[in-house]
């Protein structure tokens, strides 16, 4: 297996020397499965309005995005599929140039659910395969507890304690062998959970998608993934400023990363926006970002991060703002008693009171 450290080195070199990319020319990370993942993708979490999503996708594809991130529980795969079908049928883009990610939902954390849920996703997306299929959460909840499609509404006895990662992973591997998923990965898993899969499967995870932003930089986890040939994708790169409901789950106020003095000073120095600095700080380390926006101008802005370089002083300043576990927002302790699930991933938080 090719060393991700070497791949990341090549990627960072490409990032440093790349101008504003033309369509399909965003720098890419080489996955251990052999595929190429664009360093910038469009996040679609919480976007279910058809007009807004279509507008955002059109703007993204026109700006050069080829990486689209979705999930079963985002309830927008069908809308995304309609737009992709239009672009493909009109010859504006080729399927092999796209990188589409979706995820096994938290209410389907059983091996028998994998083929059915992936087939449902493929049908909605109007695709024969996805480029990356992720296990969305390490813990599972009962299907009947997931009423109304809201993780916040899951009751205290809603967790499914029978979650078996290795059985689920074997079912995922079968889908890869069948060609319905080109690469496999996990989301929100910790080192121990990832290592268990690595030790028990011939197919290691190709990607880990986790919360990663200025206040929660996940340095030990990123280093672990680099050593094990696993690419990292950052979600909530801006600290999820539009997700006010997160306060209910974490008990924390959402950070305003755009207005931090150091970020604004670096942005002014490079004649860039704070958002572009936050994204550049991540991708310059070879980590993929999937910022979400339904504003076409911001969608375009978020990919225009390859024509400037953060110098060593900039990087050191931004690195120093990491708050470690204290900066984490997606704690998920209030999801159906998940904190007591044997696969609750953030063990350091288990003994802290639930907000």
Written description of the protein model:
Residues 40-322 form the NADP-dependent oxidoreductase domain. Pfam families: Aldo_ket_red. Residues 1-18 form the signal peptide. By secondary structure, the protein is α/β, with parallel strands linked by helices. 35% of the residues lie in helices and 12% in strands. The chain contains twelve helices and twelve strands. Strands 3-4-5-6-9-10-11-12 form an eight-stranded parallel sheet. Helix 2 links the parallel strand 3 (42-43) and strand 4. The radius of gyration is 19 Å and the shape is globular. Residues 1-20 have low confidence and may be disordered.
Tell me the strand order in the biggest sheet: 3-4-5-6-9-10-11-12
- Counting helices, strands and paired strands, the structural category is alpha/beta
Estimate the global geometry from the Cα principal axes.
globular
Record field, number of beta strands: 12
Distance between the termini: 43 Å
The number of helical runs is 12
Strand content: 5-15%
Low-confidence stretches: 1-20
Which sheet architecture does the biggest sheet show?
8 strands, parallel
What is the H/E order?
HEEEHEHEHEEEHEHEHEHHHEHH
- Over the alpha carbons, how many angstroms does the gyration radius reach? 19 Å
Helix content: 25-40%
Q: Would you tell me the overall average pLDDT?
A: 88
